[in-house]
Amino acid sequence: MMDKDEDTTFEAAMKRLEEIVEQLSAGNLSLEESLKIFEEGIGLCRFCNKKLDEAEYKVEKLIETEDGKLNIEEFEVKE
Amino acid sequence: MKAKLTLLDFLHMDKTETDDVREEEVPNDDESRQEPHIYSVWEITRYIRQKLDDDELLRAVYVKGELSNVSQPTSGHIYFTLKDEYSELRCVMFRERNALLKFRLEDGMKVIARGRISVYEKRGKYQLYVEDIQESGIGALYRAFEQLKKKLKDEGLFDTAYKKPIPSIPHTVGIITSPTGAAIRDMLNITRRRFPHVHILVAPVAVQGEEAAPQIVNAIRLMNRVNKELMKIDVLVVGRGGGSIEELWAFNEESVARAIFASEIPVVSAVGHETDFTIADFVADRRAATPSEAAELIVPDKRQIEKNLTTLEMRLRQNLYKLIEQHRLWLSGMEKNVLFRKPTERINQYRQMVDEYKKSMIAEILHRVQLNRKTLQAISGQLDALSPKAILERGYSICIRERRVVRSVSDVSVGDELRIVFQDGEAISEVKEKRDMETLL
Lengths: 79, 441
What we know:
By secondary structure, chain A is α+β, with helices and mostly antiparallel strands. Chain A has helices spanning 10-26, 31-53, and strands at residues 58-64, 70-74.
């Protein structure tokens, strides 16, 4: 089972979803188990669709400061 | 004195180039004008040699040119001519020096030779006594490239076993390249168009010149620090747009190769055009031919993803419906079953089975009796054939003496009374005479 929290990556969700579809089509699970993973699968579909809907393209710049700290700031392409 | 003139000519040419030589030469010139002195070839050669040997510049000089007439006689010394489009310079590299060379001298190679210029008196020739020689220009770069490639390959840095997989849908991508120019612009445009869900972190670096390699190495290190300390970086792209071999050179530096190899984040190299191969390409987990290709490689196409997702959801539902349908079918099959509807049916079935068994048992027994009867008839037929009565009917008779059947002539004596039994009666007789079987025959 996978929790669909913020840490879940899109890639992991898609992978799990593929697994679930395979398991279901293999048909060697009990009805009860099948219903359970089906529900999980539907949840993953929703999660992935939601992720796809929220475009969050972000470009940032990584700089090391004089004292060796990591600095992340906005990045703009200079022509 | 043609040789003398030629040599003096040489000295004149030389002095126009260096002021120091001109001053030294003045007294010599005056002397010969006042009272012509006739030199032997050896003397003048010696003089010239002295001049050259005293010259600061000629004692340690770097000369670049193209190799020609390279020869190495059995002495082991190498003789060659350095030339450019205007001049030629004879050179010799003695055995003990050329033994240290890391490459073979070949005609046409562009080199830089270091040595002193002096005169070989016997032939009256000035020449460069070469101490060391290096390839110059692109030749040297190619050689360095091949050498480093071989070294790193032998160390196993290119082994596929070390190649990390590139995630198919990254969340955060690190790009190490110049913050200006077409490469970064193309990569950002393509990633944004294909998959506007990715977080891109750019580490701006110089991608050519002296500073490039150390900056790239540092940026790879920084990205790995971010990956450990701040947020997961799924994949790194290290690259730049096309350029000459010199401009791409940073990506052929050993330090860059080792930094890529050491990176915990998978690295995609994206240097130059399709045809440009750099050491970075060999050591990277994946090579993209161009920065644009790298962009397409690291992020999926959103439309494809959406299609995949729709397909998965459809299959998910279909699979469940199929499963439910299967269970429903099984259930209705159970309901239709006769036994399920009429439990007594089974008892009736058993009853019927018992009847059938009974019938077949009786049939079996009758069959056996029949068989036995037949056997009995056969046996009694055989018995009839063997009975004494049957024998008597066939014309044999039985001879009995004192209630015992006579089997031998020796059992009877003359005068004995014998009973002869026929099939239908008997006759009492008396033995009159005895004869053995032999006398009968």
